[in-house]
Amino acid sequence: MTPDDFPYPDTNYQEDNRGQFHFSTRAGWMNDVNAPLYYRGVYHLYYQHNPFSLVWDTMHWGHATSPDLVHWTQRPIALDPHVHPGDLWSGGGVVDTANASGLKDGDDDPIIVYSGTNGVTVFYSLDGGATFTTYADGKKVVTPGGTSRDPKVFWDPVSKQWGMVVWSDEGGNGVDFSTSANLLDWTFASRYRADWLFECPNLIRMPIDGGYRWLLHGGSGEYQVGDWDGTAFRTDWTGPQKINQTATHAGSGYYAALNFENLPDDRVVSMAWQGENKGSIWTGNASFPVDLKLQHTAEGLRVFSTPIPELAALRESTQSWENLTVEDGVQEIPAGTTYELEATIDVSRATRFTLKVGREVTYQDQRLDGAELLPVNGKIKLHLLVDRDQLDVFGNDGAVYQSYNVPPAELELVAEGRAVVEQLTIHQLRSIWR
């Protein structure tokens, strides 16, 4: 390993603002999540990276691994523009467990990743995702019209083909779909155009009702649910919904999410880029992983997002309160700056209820910071992850999901009218870096 492979200073990850259970790169710039995947007991997270600066510039692929999706270890650079040709921008990856590519040479299954702008380039690893070789001297395997980027590959067990979705602006925002039997030779299949579908596209096969539907989303987390027939995505939706109900855009508190490939049991785990966090030696972090599930609602199928249960391994102490009444006033709660909060609140007699956690998380007129959240028997559930400068908010078991970068502050409960916090639990969370 050369210094350019691991160009990072020593750190204990305790710098001001750095999250203690949200992944951030050891040093340098981080943006989009790339090619998250699971292989032989190890979760791999690749990401857009400039290891030599705190701002975006010549993209590399950074790399970190985890045994549990919670504790992460920085690894050497995975894709380096001095070694791997092309613009190493965002992309996805797969584990070729059946050796469809024929690239296998040894005990490890090939791990194949896709990157490049205005044409897709293939790189493959034969050592479990640590180092990558350029396929066919960087030959473009797919070249959509117009400007294009952000290839993502998926498996369709019905047609028994691989599919690739790539964003391009040919004729307006949309994606090109291609198919392949061997992950290397691709045939154009169809185009799906939508004004909302910009950058970092993803198509996910989601279990529901004993079967499956397909979820198509873009970089902002806007999505539609439909069907994939082996060559094309079709839906009867006239507009999109949002996975994360915030002002999502590049550099915001949520953007460019991808799901981990090769997970067992149809599990769908997603991570995104949170772009507003920065400190003395790094810029940007990843959102805490969430489980994505389709659920029926009165409005139709919707994506529900919940923090992965592996988070519980970080709990080191717990405090609970019952039946806290806050009436036209403020209730202060000792909490610190790194914790998990779970609460059930009776809001039937409150006109407004707010959790102050550096940001005001406010419920009013059946909306949580602008996102519809209907009470059940007059009650709502809130689940917050507070991690110094990172904040993730979940409402009613994942019906609402919101992510922010905000400065920490003391926890306060504020009510206009009478709110009864029937149950409040705060788990202090230990650092993943220690």
From TrEMBL:
Domain of life here? Bacteria
Write out the entry's keywords from A to Z: Glycosidase, Hydrolase
Residue ranges annotated for the Glycosyl hydrolase family 32 N-terminal domain, each copy included: 22-299
Pfam families with a match to the protein in the record: Glyco_hydro_32N (PF00251)
Q: Gene3D superfamilies from the entry? A: Exo-inulinase, domain 1, Glycosyl hydrolase domain, family 43
Which family does the similarity line name? Belongs to the glycosyl hydrolase 32 family.
- Return the protein name: Glycosyl hydrolase family 32 N-terminal domain-containing protein
Q: Which organism is it from?
A: Kribbella speibonae
